[in-house]
Amino acid sequence: MLEFTPNIIDHILIFIIGILLPLRSVKAQDMLKKITFTPIMKSRLYLGNSLSLWIMAGILAGINWFMGRPPVDFGLHWPPASLNSYAFWALGGFVLLYGFDLVYETSFPKTRKKTITEWQENIPFLPVSFGEFKQFIPLALTAGICEEFIFRGYFITYFYNLVGQNFAYLAIIIPTLIFALVHQYQGKKAMIKIFFMAIFFGLIYYFTGSLWQVMLLHFFVDLIGGFLAWQLLKNAPAPSKPVMDDEGFQEYPPEISDENSGFPENEED
Description:
Distance between the termini: 88 Å
C-alpha cells in the first residue's frame, strides 16, 4: 500500500468527499423517495449519477497525480497471481454472505414481497423494464469502478497513513461507515448489509493491494441488483406517490368541482 504523509489537501478532500457531499446526497435522496419516476427521469438520474462519480474520481486522481502520487498506486495495478489466505477468506466470506442474503430475500414469497415493498419505498428509481435495465448497466459499472477507487483506494490509503499500521483496522472501518451512510436511503437493513459488504471489500483491498477484484465484485452486485429489480418489480403494483413530469415538475390530479363531485350541493331553506 502506498505510504505518504497526509497533508492539508488530503484533509480537505476527505472533508468534502467524505462529509459534505454525503450529507448533501442524503438530503437529496430523501426527496427522491417521494417521487414516482418516469423512464426518462430514471435515464437522466442514471446518467447524472454516472457523470458525477466519474468527475469526482477524476478530480481525486488528478490532484493526487499533481502531488506525485500516480493513481495506479491507489490500487489500480494488477492483483497478485494468487490470493493470500486473508484475502481468500475475505472473498469467501463475502460470497457466502451475499449468496445467502440473495437467496433469502428473493426465493421465499414472504421475504420477496417485503423486498419488493422496500425497494419501491426506498429506491423508486430502480429499473422495472429491459430498457431501463440496459441504461442502468453503465451506472453499475461506473459505481463499481469509481466508488471503489474513492472509498477503498483513496480513503483506506489515506486513513492507513493517518492512523498507522497498528490501527489499520480503523483505515478499513472509517471509510466503510462513510460508504454505508451514503447508502442510507436504501433503508437501515440494506445499510447494515452494505456495511458488511464494504468491510469484506476493504479487507480484500488491504491484503492484495489491488482494487480490480473488488471493482468487479461491486459491479456484479449492482448488476444483479438491477436485474432482480427489473424481474421483481415489472409486474408489481406501483405505490401511490406524487408524479413528476419529465421536466421535474410535480403533476397534480385535477381538482374536483361541485359539478362533478358526485355530492349534492347544499340548498338554502
